Amino acid sequence: MNFIKVETYDELSTKAAAIICGQVAMKPDCVLGLATGSSPLGTYAKIAEKYEKGEVDFSKVSSINLDEYVGLDGNNDQSYRYFMNTNLFSKINIDLAKTNVPNGCAADLAKECEAYDNLIKQSGGIDLQLLGIGLDGHIGFNEPDAYFEKATHVVELDPSTIEANARFFASEADVPRKAVTMGMGGIMSAKKVLLIANGKNKKEIVEKSFFGPITPEVPASILQLHPDLTVIYCEN
Ligand code: GLP
What integer pLDDT is reported at residue 209 of this predicted model? Predict the structure, then answer.
């Protein structure tokens, strides 16, 4: 594991954007695994800046996002599809048809999950997976559990996750109770993993996840077993 501690969120975002754009430079038709949440916002802004400067070309890149709320379609401004379109895809020259976010409104969610795992396989595998981390150690929406769930699945969100994500909604009651998330199999099969975390409130979970025992009670701890993991943490 490459654990990098930085002083500012700006530094974190600059480094993460450099790693992602470096991946695209090395393999122009790579598959990027992308994440939502507030942590990657700075990274996406830096990527957009690099694109504006002509430093990176996303025309051959495809992407596979981690998760989506059940019941929110892509036009809903709280959906992760909307988040990705707004904060990244509309700012770079990625082909929208090559971007993938689970469909949280699929009539048959079990089928949607199966199709998502097939998509990951058929893509040839994710070259670089970007991750944030929840306060309870969740990655994607893989919540603390008695075991690590391998496949893409529908998950009941933890009360603490609903509370943490309520800041993006009009009220806590509006936060969907369920989500579709890529499972640990999809995440761990990525060739490289880059996790970014910032803020004092993430310090404890970052320590538990990367320096504590590997347990499904701390979902991100499984990443200690990944052969190519980079964590960038900024306490400030
Ligand atoms: C959400 C997302 C995660 C994200 C986490 C942390 O629940 N599903 O992918 O990592 O929140 O979000 P933030 O970066 O806003 O702290």
Answer: 98
AA identity, residue 25: A
> Would the pTM of this model clear 0.85, i.e. be above it?
yes
* Residues lower than pLDDT 50 in the chain: none
- The ligand 1 atom at the shortest distance from the C-alpha of residue 161 is 7
Selected catalytic residue, list 112, 138, 153, 226: 138
pLDDT at 146: 96
Q: What is the pLDDT of residue 9?
A: 98
Residue 29 to residue 120: CA distance in whole angstroms: 15
10: tokens are 């700006």
In angstroms, what is the span from residue 135 Cα to ligand 1's centroid? 8
Interacting residues of 46 by C-beta distance below 8 A, sequence separation 6+: 13, 14, 16, 17
* pLDDT tens, residue by residue, 92-127: 999 999 999 999 999 999 999 999 999 999 999 999
Q: What domains can you pick out in the chain, each with its CATH number? A: 2-189+201-234 (3.40.50.1360)
H-run or E-run covering 177: none
Q: Identify whether the C-beta of residue 178 lies closer than 8 Å to the C-beta of residue 157.
A: yes
Active site residue 136: yes
Residues with CB under 6 Å of ligand 1 are: 35-39, 66-67, 132-134, 140-141, 161, 165
Q: Which atom of ligand 1 is nearest to the CA of 202?
A: 16
